[in-house]
Amino acid sequence: MVRTQNTPGTLLPLPDFCDYQRLHTALGDMSPITRCRQPGWERILNNRHRTGIVGIRVVNGTRTAESSMAGLPDERKQSPACSSPSNGPRDDQSCEERPPRQREPGILSCTRRDPLADNGKAHAMARKIEVPASLIRGDVDEGYGPVADAFRKNFAEKGEIGAACAVYRDGKKVVDLWGGYRDGTTRKEWNENTVVVMFSTTKGVASLALALAHSRGLLDYDERVATYWPEFAWRDKDKITVRQLLSHQAGLPVIDIPLRISDLHNLDLIAAALALQHPLWPPGTRHGYHGISLGWYEGELLRRVDPTGRSLGHYFAEEIATPLDITFHIGLPAGFDPDRIATIHGHSKYASLLHLREVPRGMLLGMMNPKSLTSRAFNNPRELLIDTNFFRPDVLAAEIPAGNGIGEPRAVAAAYSAAVTGQLGLTDKTLDALTSPAQPPSGGLMDLVLHVPVVYSLGYLKPTADSPFGSAANTSFGTPGNGGSFGFADPDTRIGYCYAPNHLGFGLEDAREIALRNALYHDVLKEGPAV
Fold first, then answer.
1. Can you give the pLDDT at residue 367?
2. Beta strands across the sheet bearing 406-407
3. Exposed/middle/buried for residue 44 (C-beta within 10 Å: 0-12, 13-18, 19+)
4. How far is residue 499's CA from residue 165's CA, in Å, rounded to a whole number?
5. Mean local confidence (pLDDT), 278-302
6. How far apart are the C-alpha atoms of 144 and 172, rounded to whole Å?
7. CA 7 – CA 475 distance, rounded (Å)
8. In sequence order, what are the beta bridge partners of 496?
9. Per-residue model confidence as pLDDT tens digits over 161-198
């Protein structure tokens, strides 16, 4: 275990790690190190007052994290995000340092520009858009007509602009619907191969990559994370298990080191920022939605156990998407056809005010307070607080396994179907782990970030009496996304399901998605009362 303490010996400052492909390689290399001024690593040093760790002390081959500032130069006078010569000004923000008496070292005061001013792509919709019935397309198998009826009704009565819904049963596609406009402003039609950002529905897709690694014996859900990723043990994280991490129980929803979108391509930098976090509660005692951080923790864990060290996005592409012949990306590849991408339509301020009651009160108050746990769980990088920014090309190009997955909704349904039918190659042991009842935290089910009771397990949301999904067997697993998308697997009915719109809804549950799910389970499968 790497412990935080002060000891004499050789000090390796954190910025020096940028000379190495892997942080753990740097810790094992005692050779002289050339100092590096790479943007991002200086930011870790500048924010050492938050992490308490400024370097690695080496004594007779033993490595410990150093919590004293002794031996390191004071570089906090310069803000690398705004004044670094190698960086230049940020494209999306106009930044200036706060006066010293108003700020902590290294923290920036940033005035946001209009995120739509540069790309003109993401729009807040202030009025309803009429979608002709002729633009609602696709097909359903015999007996699944109620799902198509609900899909059409969403456009006629619930303000749908563009969307798609797909259902697989027993490995066969039984519902494949799409329609409306992929861009409501220009009236460009949503086509069969249109892709859309699915926000946190990405979490469940990303967790399939971890499940596949589990099936291949690369990791154990009940093993300590530090067994696979030694630096994770820093700052009292040495006993956290993979299960606790994936179930939002690790106390790590916040990332203290300020990140920029450009940093997200440097996976070693992200790994260092994650390793420097301290749990906000004793792991296993509570849970709180790791809204942004979970995907990067999953990604680094997978990088450590994969024999070739692939990122989560590349692992998913090569081991899941390609074999299943589906279109879903975690990190949009260069050259992808932009005419296939659906525009994300957000909310006007007036519409948001009308729907405040659909957001849990505690969550709403938390998002209004930038110092709250709720706000801090979603604001790093700061651009991610604006949901329409997930449509930006630079954000789509990065790997954000907790939130920026983009693809065809039928791809998500197909992946979940493959998970429960055996096509994906999950072992019985892995599938049993995914379908078994969750192991809840000892302190209860109230989510400290979302302020609602929820049940998480191994990267997924599980059904509850208040928020049911799937059959009455309660073996389903999946994740909803901001704005209304939802993808899940139901092993009991052997269903793979996904719905995704481009007009963002409100609250944690979406009436359009619920209508489709009710039509499938209540009207078609006769699985109990409607939600």
1. 81
2. 196-197, 406-407, 328-329
3. buried
4. 4
5. 97
6. 13
7. 51
8. 168, 489
9. 999 999 999 999 999 999 999 999 999 999 999 999 99
Give the integer Cα–Cα distance in Å for 492 and 509: 23
In percent, the amount of the chain with pLDDT more than 90 equals 68
Question: DSSP string of 267-309?
Answer: HHHHHHHHHT---SS-BTTBB---TTHHHHHHHHHHHHHSTT-
Give the position of tokens 């899940």: 488
- Phi, psi dihedral angles at 188 (to 5 degrees): -80, 130
Residues present in the chain in total: 531
Q: What is the DSSP letter of 103?
A: S
What local confidence, expressed as pLDDT, does residue 326 receive? 98
Among the ranges given (31-35, 104-108, 349-353), the one the predictor scored with the smallest mean pLDDT: 104-108
What the block records as the tokens of 333 is 């590849």
Residue with the two structure tokens 């275990």: 1
- Angle ∠(286,291,294) on CA atoms, nearest 5: 80
In sequence order, what are the beta bridge partners of 501? Answer: 163
Alpha-helical runs (H) found in 162-266: 201-215, 225-228, 242-246
Instruction: Judge if the upstream peptide bond of residue 437 is cis by omega within 30 degrees of 0.
Output: no
For the chain, give every residue range classified as CATH 3.40.710.10. 201-410
pLDDT of the residue at 229? 97
Domain 201-410: state its class. Answer: alpha beta
What 8-state DSSP symbol labels residue 520? I
Closest of 53, 111, 196, 100 to residue 503, by C-alpha: 196
- The pTM assigned to this predicted structure is 0.80
H-type alpha helices, 380-509? 393-397, 409-421, 428-435
Cα separation, 179 vs 239, in Å, equals: 49
Report residue 500: phi and psi, to 5°: -150, 130
Is residue 55 within 8 Å of 72, Cβ to Cβ? yes
- % of the chain surpassing 70 pLDDT: 74
Q: By C-alpha distance, which of 330, 329, 322 is closest to 295? A: 330
Q: What is the pLDDT of residues 336-392, one digit of tens each?
A: 999 999 999 986 554 555 556 677 788 888 888 899 999 999 999 999 988 889 989
Q: In whole numbers, what is the pLDDT of the chain averaged over residues?
A: 81
Taking residues 241-267, what's their average pLDDT? 96
C-alpha to C-alpha distance for 363 and 372, rounded to whole angstroms: 10
Chain position carrying tokens 């606790």: 244
Structure-block tokens of residue 42? 């200086």
CA distance 182 to 351: 21
Query: What per-residue confidence (pLDDT) applies to 277?
Result: 95
